[in-house]
Amino acid sequence: MSTLLKMVCLIDGEHYLPVTKSALNTLDNIEHIEVVAAVFIGGTEKLRDATPESIGKKLGVKVYFGPDHHKIPYDLIVEVAVEHHADVVMDLSDEPVVDYSKRFKIASMVLEQGILYEGPDFSFQPLDEYEVLTKPSLKILGTGKRIGKTAVSAYAARLIHREKYNPCVVAMGRGGPEEPEIVRGDEIEITPQYLMEQSDKGIHAASDHWEDALMSRILTIGCRRCGGGMVGQVFITNMKQGAQMANEVDSEFVIMEGSGAAIPPIKTDRHIVLVGANQPIINIERFFGPYRIKLADLVVVTMCEEPMASPGKVERIQKFIEGINPQATVIPTVFRPKPLESVEGKRVLFATTAPDSVKEVLIKHLEEEHGCTVVGTTPYLSNRPLLQKDIEKYIDQVDVMLTELKAAAVDVATKDALQAGLEVVYCDNIPLVIREEDNLDPAILEVVDQAIADHSNK
């Protein structure tokens, strides 16, 4: 960004022009700001001669009008900001012309262009994107937490590896290491005992990169992050170092994995975006849901089943995504558990982060597809005290602790099970399509091939 900030201001007719002019003069008189244009975004209550020429003459700046004075000209705001090479779009409007939803829409569209969007008491900045990677890459990000991002990342990594692209995963988590660490999932046997040894050393052995290494059997690089802004920016992360390490390791393709709704601050060639059908619809359709969705080359909609989402809600989500990002492929899915080792004929305690409302579906799948008897379940991998109570309740009735590698899976579930002499088996979550016409594997590989093509054309 240059020393002199070029600013486009949003104005309305609900303010008297002398008041608006005073505000514009105040901004323009700040040494490092140049007001280059204004966009009229609505309201004519206090305007007598509402033409761009007359208002521009009175305000002393070029003013742009949309076709309808009563509607916000979203596209025009972006066009003017880009045309004038603006660094900042400053919103000098107010209710009733703009409300929260309209401002978030403006913010999303402006941020897509890498331009700041500010107002009297807010500032939204574009995401940091460090150009670090020297290999073809894709980014996997989500519209929220607990929507299956790590499961899809692991699934994609396995698929890419199977197709001989030799990928590595760089993942950031809230329990990640102080310095990025490499886990050679392709070389070491990650047993429950091995993970316990790591946990005893103070390592968060259920962090996302450990899960990726265990489920995909590939090289992973673990990073940390703290904080997550509304757009997806993190407060601190060592992911830039992790990306630099990915350049040096023996891999040909890099998957940058987000954390919750936080987005890796590393520029990649392509994007896969996860949308949880279990999320409140307002979080998908408004705020910065659209911003994330518009980044996507492939959208995987997860948890598309009752009671988490009705067929009507899934259809609404799909149509919304197709409406704002028609170039992206959209595939609705559900998750089903897959033990990494055989549990056939065994009595099982199943520990998961899936909500209790879907446990009967998961139990039925495990028993029918994997031949075990599920004696008990616990949805409390993210709640250590309640998880411990459930383990105590069932531990004398089962042969196997079957657990996802999440949260307290190592320091509570694995530890207690091993101490009780139980077998510990880790469990993957596999995304399955719900429509006959969809095929997830080719859709993922198409994004990979596009990323490789983009990288070779740089």
UniProtKB/TrEMBL annotation:
Catalytic activity field: (2R)-2,3-bisphosphoglycerate + ATP + H(+) = cyclic (2R)-2,3-bisphosphoglycerate + ADP + phosphate
Subcellular location: Cytoplasm
Alphabetized UniProt keyword annotations: ATP-binding, Cytoplasm, Ligase, Nucleotide-binding
EC id: 6.5.1.9
Function: Catalyzes the formation of cyclic 2,3-diphosphoglycerate (cDPG) by formation of an intramolecular phosphoanhydride bond at the expense of ATP.
Alphabetical list of HAMAP family matching this protein: Cyc_PG_syn
Protein name, entry field: Cyclic 2,3-diphosphoglycerate synthetase
Organism: Methanobacterium formicicum
Gene: cpgS
